[in-house]
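User: I'm putting together notes for a lab meeting next week and I want to include a structural view of one of the chains we've been expressing. I don't have a solved structure, so I'd like a prediction I can at least talk through. The sequence is below, exactly as it appears in our construct file.
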Amino acid sequence: MQNHIVLVPGFGGFDALGSLRYYHGVTPVLGSSSLVLHYFPNLPTASVQTRARRLRLWLGELQERRVVGGKDVIHLVGHSTGGLDIRQLLIDYRKREGTHAPGKDVLDRIRTVQFLSTPQRGTNLARRVRGLGGVSRVVTKWGPRMLYETTRALRTGGVGFLGRCLQGIWPPTEGSPDWLDAAIQTMVGFGARRENLERALARASYFETLRWLLHMCTDVAAISDLDPIRAPGAPESPAHRKTADEERAFLEARNIRYRSIVTVAKRPAKSSRGLFKFVYGLTERHPPAELGQPQSLPWLLARGEGELEPSDNDGIVNSVSMVWPDAKSCFLVEADHADVIGHFDYSQPAQQDPDAPQRYYQYDLLSSGSGFGQREFDALWGKIASFTDSWKYPRALEKPDEAWVM
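Assistant: Thanks for the context. Below is the predicted structure for the 406-residue chain, given as structure tokens.
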């Protein structure tokens, strides 16, 4: 019997894109475990319903190809909107229960689900973006459309040349915005000209980025799903469900263990500048009641408890919104939204084997100064791996603040 862990990315998600891996550094941390790792190549901004259906088909394909064997078990981890995809997947399975619809065999293999920085009741950031009206359409639709058309027109050589020019103006330096470094280094990579394999990989990366941009500019329904207040006529997202009772009862009836890891970052200083201060400010301002009430949660990597207010957030999602299905199933980590997926620092890849010339960088995408580093990252993902055994030992987590202290 093998234990398969499937990592589902969130909004804008992918497995690898250009110079960036979504889940950076997870493979080395979990390499010593018995888990078989799978990185789900999600649709970036499609509706949660569409993304969940894609996940269901993908899991079914793993089983059909015997990647997941007859006695194997599956563990699901969803970061950000990826957690909502998992909830919707389970809702869909529940609706099909008792029928002969395909997928029951996959459901029978799911043993644990973990939600990481998931906007269980939406995020105020999505509401703020939708409230911008015409500006929102420019940001969410026309911006990606312009990037897509420009990238397609310039082709690999033109984009690579432009990237080298921009890198000369904004070289990666300490304190530079890493999200900009990621974009520029990806552009530079498209222009690789050293040898055949590297050129082929550069072309593949270029077309994969084009596909990602095309998805981004043609389907942004996930933003509506992430608004804590459901728009009239919009399909119901798991974030809009008023109670967790039915979902919790289904998980418990299926003997699926579950928990949520809640992230919170320090409020940026008034003198600070940059992307994190901007998105943190949007997320904390006038949070609607639908996001949740103040909470007290145990720390995952330390003893004691932390207090959360509705305005507290990790730069992208209000922390109280991540509390699901109840406080006793949740643990708190001090980190920003990108820290926990490995993007808490800038580093270039180590020298690679010449037969694997693809280079992926680590970035500090939000630069929040949360203090979350390699030690905390290793401990967090070690605990995520350990939780996959909890279904075997149902009493193991009766004292959470003792069981999970670092």
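A couple of points you could mention at the meeting. The CA atoms of residues 297 and 305 lie 5 Å apart. The longest helix spans residues 134-169.

User: Perfect, that's what I needed.
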